[in-house]
Design a protein that fits this description.
The structure holds two protein chains of two kinds.
Chain A (H helix, E strand, L loop, with lengths): L19 H32 L3 H5 L13 H7 L2 H32 L7 H13 L4 H10 L6 H5 L6 H13 L2 H9 L4 H12 L1 H17 L2 H6 L8 H18 L3 H5 L1 H36 L2
Helix pairs in contact in A: 1-15, 3-15, 4-8, 4-11, 4-13, 8-15, 9-10, 11-15, 13-15
Chain B lengths: L15 H4 L9 H36 L22 H7 L2 H21 L1 H11 L4 H12 L6 H12 L4 H8 L11 H29 L3 H9 L4 H12 L1 H13 L6 H7 L5 H4 L2 H10 L4 H30 L5
Helix pairs in contact in B: 3-16, 4-9, 5-9, 6-9, 7-13, 10-11, 12-16, 15-16
The chains are: A mainly alpha, B mainly alpha.
């Protein structure tokens, strides 16, 4: 396996002494990069501050990154909302089931595609690749899923996007990089294809499988549109659609400027929901980030 | 897709099966298929479920596009009732709203391409000049973060930031301006949309460039320096040509998704007040399909969009292969 990126940290000294212009450039460069960090982080800090502030301060535009009028009412309000937790649980269930299905299908197909001597391999690769550049489109997909009776079931969320072609190519590239001698030796010892895959290949592929699990899990955790399209029952929705309904409702309420009680805490409640839905991602992000980077590069090196 | 970063690793050593003389062509082709099936049936069996997935959830909808040419009745056959020819295509081609949303799509797509394609290159080049490892890694980690957020969360954040009491209006307030309801103003939509795209995608977009930068040959810099090239000229004449294959590949991919401008994000952010600039082909067909229940009409628009998308990728790929010798396949 080619692991890129480890070298990228080596500083390049291209000249014995930096010219004055280059020294100035480096200072400007550092300042701009700090600016990038600030701009990237500001929305997060802003939302956290808003979630902890009193509604009155938010509406009058007094909250930036420090909470004003520290107030946890909105958190309590959301914590006691049964629907929010039901939807949150749905997200977890959908993510786990969808990731499982995706991993099994992707691994099987990628393994098949990685066998250079297989007859018809080109066709099998083509079938997958073509879908990257041409898709049936929203309406036919909707008609299909509906006529399969998958509406308002978990299957509408977990099945139609089971294989990501990008992930498939990443896995295929990884399997191709494994030494074929091992599998040949196992075949000589009498293992059949399933045995080789389960007992030789998969144990060697733990790292890539972990990466794929992350790729799929994050994309299913974040997805909202399929559920929005195919699920009408509130208690089956994932939390992303809960948030979507909240912000869609909030904007219409804002423009109507009525409904005093609900609008009272609308902005804070939105902020709290954002914080609570983002939290799991932020919590695992520092630990898994490098696996993502590695996976992306593996895919690009040998797409 | 051919390698984007470096030449592909050497082909795996010939397996014994490959070493066999290739089967003679046409006369024995049937038999060799039978042989292949007998020998590799277990491998083929692993492909059955994934193939079923592709056929049902990817290729069947492609065929389902046939309803663009047929009268479709909800609840009836998924392939429609009877032929109506090009009626639905004529309908949208003569529909002024369609051309409005088509123009919006082109404008938003162009703006996105103009900002979201070059900025990752610039950021990657800047990061490449950083010598403090920790600082570099910190900037990278932070800039990748927005990529992992759900579009719903990004949209919700945008709404909060641009709301009347939000951060954007606090800046307006600094210059003693009156608060603006940004998301209700069609003249602000493009700015908001493109900024949020930049915020979410630029950091993550640097990964491939940073990887490509490490593969640029050090000797070239050495040679350039001996020739008296300044840092700036080294970047221009060595670094940029070095990452050109990556740039071209990503450009082709960007052009391919040109028409598919952030459908989900627009769906979350737009409202009737901002339709004049925010409504794009995909959101228009979404409303036609699901609010007006005009499935055939919407399918016709969708098919048109998909075909143009395909043509765009193929053209970009062809031009790229002819001019710089990089292509996706």
């Amino acid at each position: 396996m080619v692991i890129l990126g480890t070298k990228s940290d080596a500083p390049k000294t291209r000249g014995p002494v930096d010219s004055r212009g280059y020294r100035i450039f480096r200072i400007v460069n550092t300042v701009v990069l700090i600016g990038v960090v600030v701009v990237t982080l500001f929305p997060f800090l802003n939302i956290v501050a808003r979630s902890l502030s009193e509604e009155a301060y938010i509406i009058t535009g007094k909250v930036s990154i420090v909470p004003r009028g520290f107030d946890l009412t909105a958190y309590k309000l959301l914590m006691s909302d049964g629907l929010f937790w039901t939807n949150y649980r749905n997200t977890v269930v959908y993510t786990v089931v969808a990731t499982l299905i995706s991993i099994v299908l992707t691994t099987c197909y990628a393994y098949v595609l990685s066998k250079p001597q297989l007859k018809g391999r080109g066709v099998l690769v083509g079938i997958a690749l073509f879908t990257m550049f041409f898709s049936g489109g929203l309406i036919p997909n909707y008609v299909l899923v509906t006529s399969l009776g998958m509406k308002n079931t978990i299957w509408a969320v977990v099945v139609p996007n089971a294989i990501s072609v990008f992930n498939l190519l990443v896995m295929k590239a990884f399997f191709e990089s494994l030494p074929s001698e091992l599998e040949e030796a196992a075949a000589v010892d009498g293992l059949n294809t399933y045995g080789i895959l389960l007992r030789i290949v998969l144990p060697l592929s733990k790292a890539i499988i972990a990466t794929m699990v992350l790729f799929y899990a994050v994309s299913f955790w974040n997805s909202w549109f399929t559920a929005f399209l195919y699920i009408d029952q509130q208690d089956l929705l994932p939390v992303t659609v809960y948030l979507r309904n909240l912000i869609a409702g909030a904007t219409s309420a804002e423009s109507a400027a009525a409904d005093a009680d609900k609008v009272q805490a609308a902005a804070t409640l939105e902020a709290v929901t954002i914080v609570l839905t983002t939290l799991p991602i932020l919590a695992v992000y520092p630990f898994v980030q490098r696996y993502f980077v590695r996976g992306v590069m593996l895919g690009a090196v040998k797409g | 897709m051919t390698s984007t970063l470096r030449p592909p690793p050497p082909a795996p050593p010939n397996s014994p099966r490959q070493a066999q003389s290739p089967a003679p062509r046409s006369p024995r082709r049937r038999r060799s298929w039978r042989q292949a099936l007998r020998r590799d049936w277990q491998l083929y069996s692993l492909a059955i479920l994934p193939l079923l997935f592709f056929l049902v959830f990817r290729y069947l909808p492609m065929i389902g596009n046939i309803i663009a040419f047929r009268r479709f009745k909800p609840g009836g056959s998924i392939f429609g009732e009877y032929w109506v020819g090009l009626r639905y295509f004529r309908m949208f081609l003569t529909d002024p709203t369609f051309w409005e949303v088509f123009t919006n799509t082109l404008v938003l797509g162009t703006l996105t391409l103009l900002f979201c394609f070059p900025l990752p290159i610039v950021l990657a080049l800047m990061l490449n000049e950083v010598r403090a490892r920790r600082f570099k890694r910190f900037v990278q980690s932070v800039s990748y973060l927005p990529h992992f957020l759900s579009i719903v969360i990004v949209a919700a954040m945008v709404m909060q930031l641009t709301s009347v009491g939000g951060a954007a209006n606090q800046i307006v307030g600094l210059f003693a301006g009156d608060p603006v309801a940004f998301l209700q103003k069609s003249e602000w939509f493009r700015t908001i949309y493109v900024s949020s795209e930049v915020w979410q995608t630029v950091g993550w977009g640097t990964i491939l460039y940073l990887a490509a930068l490490t593969t640029v040959d050090e000797d070239l810099y050495e040679a350039a320096r001996i020739d008296g090239a300044s840092r700036w000229r080294q970047t221009w004449h060595v670094t940029l040509p070095g990452i050109r294959p990556t740039m071209m590949t990503l450009l082709i991919l960007n052009i391919g998704s040109f028409l598919a401008v952030g459908f989900e994000k627009i769906l979350l952010l737009y409202n009737p007040l901002t339709y004049p600039t925010a409504d794009v082909v995909s959101t228009y067909l979404f409303r036609m399909g699901f609010q007006s229940s005009n499935f055939s009409y919407a399918a016709a628009i969708g098919l048109f969009e998909a075909v143009i998308g395909l043509i765009l990728v193929l053209t970009a790929n062809l031009i790229s292969r002819r001019t710089v010798g990089t292509s996706l396949w």
